[in-house]
Design brief:
The complex is a heterodimer of chains A (329) and B (334). Chain A contains 14 helices and 4 strands. Chain A is mainly alpha-helical. In chain A, α8 crosses α10. Chain B is 33% helix and 23% strand. The chains are: A mainly alpha (329), B alpha/beta (334).
Chain lengths: 329, 334
């Protein structure tokens, strides 16, 4: 088991290195002249060239990548002399539009995104799995059909639609909740909950629909397995058969999907963060696209990718925890 | 016969499906005395396994219509509610299944699965349950059971797994054990070991055994009585020697004729029964076997096609469902 985890972690580190290369080269190949973009309103050819030198854009892509990579570990300095800007390690780049290191920008935005992702994750996982099990146990009856019908609707509706409808009715029309204004939970817990409850619910509904359907189909499959019949033949109560034997056997794909969904949410629920004006990674990414600020985009893309790779690792380890046959591999 | 330990009377099981009602079992009647072995034989789809699952109460009442009487030691199981039957499963009656790999949960250690079976019916500590699990593994002949107890099913061979299944079924000393094709999924060399183990354990514990199989060799080894099923019906029911030496039903004849024999010098072709098992949704009229029967010409008129024969006694403890038997034209020119 330990060897398995070590091997997976090593592969992950290699993957991360490869990832920085791909992301960096991808953005370097974009037909956007960063030197011009960061030059400001009054822009002469001379300032552009100066900018180019300061950003290191006059060097080859490979040299730039090397500087970027070493910046991650040792920090880097943009420009020379008095105008020099120091970006200390780990340096993910520097945003000249926001005049802050990219890492700092990301760290500032991370709490809102993490809280949004975590709350929604807990809600949709528990809700989705519970409803899926319930539905499977009442297969073909009206309860099953109702749950499946609702989940199909939830599955099909786009997030901006549900988000806007919810804002219109609950905040504007009925004024049940104040207009969303994000505050950190340690500053104003009640204000935090008032802001987060709607985006949590909207995300939960969207994602729970998928987990309900997945759990239901998994349960219908495992409940037909021979070892479930064996469990029943030993006289186990049905609820133990369902929870301990059937649900655990059907858990693997649910864990996979949940891990990747959680990582995706950590990368920012772009549309929902915008609708509910949450200062998260998603809205940071959008503003970076609009500005445009490539340094931020590289940073956000990398962070998101890191989340997904780490989530994959966690899922792989969980596999081995759930299914002992995986440990052999 | 003394008062039977298990008596099944007029058992009928049907499953309503979209394609029609599947009449899996219709009018099964048989019984087993305490400590004896009954073999139920027949082709796939003859209703053997469904009969066993009906006895165990494993058929979901939402999907299966079960009627008749299943009296175990004086209690009519079909009159009990789900929870009362569940209490009896694993304690009074237990079951072994065909494929031991798929019948053990792949994610749990065999010791945990055995201990769980103990703790369902006994209020004992985890360590006590584990001790009983090791003891049960020892009894079914698993080497170094104190180590094997922590193995997962995929770490064991097929024969070992079936031994674990047997240990699990017997761990609460049930008085009735149903084995549903316990050797079918095993290697031939292992099959003999498993049947021998079951016979041995039955001698030790005095458990009543119902063995479901289509392996007539297993039947000859283990059974006291044989119940031949076809199309959901019991077509012949007799002590094992009667069935082997004086089979009355044309289908039983056919079954015996289709067994390859090593002892004879002549290399005969096997004699299969022509045709296929009947559809359980759309059963043949009259005798369910008549479309495949080689001797229906011997019955006068159209009786085989129009009228279902009753299960009648042709000798002591020998029942047959055939118009030939009813007409008194018994005995077979083999």
């Amino acid at each position: 088991m330990t060897a398995y985890i070590i091997r997976r972690v090593l592969i992950m580190l290699l993957l991360l290195l490869l990832l920085t290369l791909v992301v960096f080269v991808l953005f370097a190949l974009l037909p956007a002249d960063v030197a011009r973009l960061t030059c400001g309103k009054v822009c002469t050819d001379q300032t552009i060239e100066l900018n180019r030198a300061r950003l290191g854009l006059d060097k080859s892509v490979w040299e730039q990548y090397w500087i970027f990579l070493s910046g991650l570990f040792f920090g880097r300095t943009y420009g020379v002399g008095e105008a020099a800007i120091v970006c200390s390690a780990p340096c993910l780049g520097y945003s000249f539009t926001k005049t802050e290191p990219v890492l700092q920008l990301i760290l500032d935005r991370l709490p809102a995104t993490i809280f949004l992702a975590l709350g929604a994750f807990i809600l949709f996982l528990i809700g989705g799995v519970a409803l899926g099990v319930y539905s499977a146990l009442r297969r073909g009856r009206w309860q099953d059909k109702t749950v499946m019908g609702i989940s199909l609707v939830g599955y099909s509706l786009p997030s901006f639609f549900i988000g806007l409808v919810v804002i219109y009715f609950i905040i504007i029309r009925w004024q049940i909740l104040p207009f969303p204004q994000y505050v950190q939970p340690w500053e104003d817990p009640i204000g935090f909950l008032q802001t987060m409850i709607l985006p949590w619910l909207v995300l939960a509904i969207l994602y729970a629909a998928f987990y309900t359907r997945l759990t239901r189909s998994q349960m219908l499959e495992t409940l037909n397995e021979d070892y479930i019949r064996t469990a029943r033949a030993t006289g186990l109560p049905e609820r133990v058969v369902v929870r301990k034997h059937a649900l655990r056997a059907g858990l693997t794909p649910i864990v996979t999907a949940a891990g990747l969904d959680f990582a995706g949410l950590l990368g920012g629920a772009i549309i929902l963060e915008s609708i509910f004006s949450l200062p998260g990674l998603g809205s940071l990414a959008i503003s970076a696209v609009l500005d445009p600020d490539l340094a931020i985009l590289v940073g956000v893309t990398l962070i998101t990718a890191v989340f997904i790779i780490v989530a994959n690792l966690v899922v792989d380890v969980l596999y081995a925890v759930i299914d002992p046959r995986v440990r052999l591999a | 016969m003394s008062a039977p330990f298990l008596h099944v009377e007029d058992l009928a099981v049907s499953f309503p499906t979209e394609d029609g009602v599947v009449k899996a079992v219709a009018g099964s009647t048989f019984s087993v005395s305490k400590g004896k072995t009954l073999a139920i034989v027949g082709e796939s789809g003859s209703g053997k396994s469904v009969t066993a699952q009906a006895i165990m109460g494993l058929l979901n009442r939402n999907f299966a219509d079960v009627s008749g009487r299943i009296v175990l030691d004086g209690t009519d199981l079909l009159a009990l509610d789900d929870d009362q039957v569940r209490e009896m499963r694993g304690s009074v009656m237990a079951m072994i299944f065909q494929d031991p790999l798929s019948s053990l949960h792949p994610f749990y250690r065999i010791g945990d699965q055995l201990a769980e079976a103990v703790r369902v019916h006994n209020k004992v500590s985890k360590s006590e349950a584990r001790a009983r699990a090791i003891d049960a593994l020892h009894r079914v002949g698993i080497p170094s059971p104190d180590k094997r107890v922590d193995d997962y099913p995929h770490q064991l061979s097929g024969g070992m797994r079936q031994r674990v299944m047997i240990a699990m079924a017997l761990i609460n000393s049930p008085s009735l054990l149903i084995a549903d094709e316990p050797t079918t999924a095993l290697d031939v060399t292992v099959q003999a070991q498993i049947t021998e183990l079951m016979s041995e354990l039955q001698r030790e514990t005095g458990t009543t055994l119902i063995i479901i199989t289509h392996d007539l060799g297993v039947v000859a080894d283990m059974a006291d009585e044989v119940c031949v099923m076809y199309g959901g019906r019991v077509v012949e029911y007799a002590p094992v020697n009667e069935v082997y030496y004086r089979p009355q039903h044309p289908y039983t004849h056919g079954l015996l004729a289709s067994v390859p024999r090593l002892a004879t010098d002549r290399v005969d072709r096997l004699d299969p029964i022509p045709g296929n098992p009947p559809s359980l949704i759309n059963l043949p009229s009259g005798c369910v076997f008549h479309p495949r029967c080689s001797r229906r010409d011997e019955v006068s008129g159209d009786l085989c096609r129009t009228e279902e024969p009753a299960l009648v006694s042709v000798a002591t403890d020998h029942l047959v469902r055939c118009h030939l038997a009813q007409a008194g034209a018994t005995g077979g020119a083999r």
